[in-house]
Amino acid sequence: MSASTFEELVCLVGPKIKRFPSRPDIISVGEILTATLRYLASGESMMSITYGFRIGKATVSKLILQCCEVLWDTLNQKVLVVPDTFKWAQLPVDFERICQVPNCIGSIDGKHIIHQAFANSGSEHYNYKGSHSNILLAMCDAKYNFTLVDIGAAGRCSDGGVFSNSEMGKGFIHNNLNFPADKEIHENSGPIPYYALGDEAFPLLSNLMHPYPGRGKRKLPLKESIFNYRLSRGRRTIENTFGLMASKWRIFRKPIIAGHKTVNTITKAAVVLHNFVKLSENNAGVRYYSGTLDTEQSNQWEPQGALEPVHRLGTNTYTADAKAIRDKLKDYFSAEGATLFQYERLINL
């Protein structure tokens, strides 16, 4: 984060985190924000922040929670997409230019935010991998900015219930996210809805596409293999976005030691800070990301500390309309929308 971006952030959140105690040794807005950013960016414990800034242990805990809450409240309307038809209509242009996927509004995935077991929580947050976690569901655009997030589902929630019970999932299922009207991707295709890209963990809906089943288990027909590859090229944007966030905010490199409310608030703050810094500094951090962003590698993201992938989030059932839309896209990718690299990639598999 550059000095100018930090000063801008101080101006935005300063009035809300400024302290007014009667003692003369008050903690300044800059110190509060610096301590919070260092905690998020370094992955150090709160005790380390206590010694580094000479602030009491209880005070550090309260200040970090308060500052993260203010960051979320101040920035979420500025850097996340409000479900609005006009704003949604601007996103598919980048997806088609960068990923060659038409009518795509974003890519979606979920991660387990690993944390130390909360006091008196029992097995409420105990997931199938043997750790305690909350779930972060997120959607991003083609430039690695988060657009929609749903934070806080317990790690033990049933696979089918995570997506269907989240506000984001309800928006997709009931089709009330205000996506633009259907649009033709080719003169022979007919109108096709705007949609997001997900993996097999998500249900197949008219506004949410996932791959044809059978990858790695059997030889798929050529058209289905091409569709899966093209979808994977678009869907890797969300994997890269999670990687960028974990690379910059290293609090996610190991289990988070904090209370339930603090873990959720830290996650919210990291999401909006990720977008804020990228938008303020022209994609800052992308060139420093240790992963491969623009090559034709597998889209399987390697777990990093406190961020682990989630598995099935929906059912295998789908409507005839969703199947018909996926088949139209499959035919388009093998005909009018075909590219030379897709065949080269499939030959090398």
TrEMBL record:
Its cofactor is a divalent metal cation. The keyword Metal-binding applies. GO terms for cellular component: nucleus. Residues 108-275 form the DDE Tnp4 domain. GO terms for molecular function: hydrolase activity; metal ion binding; nuclease activity. Keywords: Hydrolase, Metal-binding, Nuclease, Nucleus. Its main location: nucleus. PANTHER family: NUCLEASE HARBI1-LIKE PROTEIN, PTHR22930. Belongs to the HARBI1 family. This is DDE Tnp4 domain-containing protein. It comes from Macrosiphum euphorbiae (potato aphid).
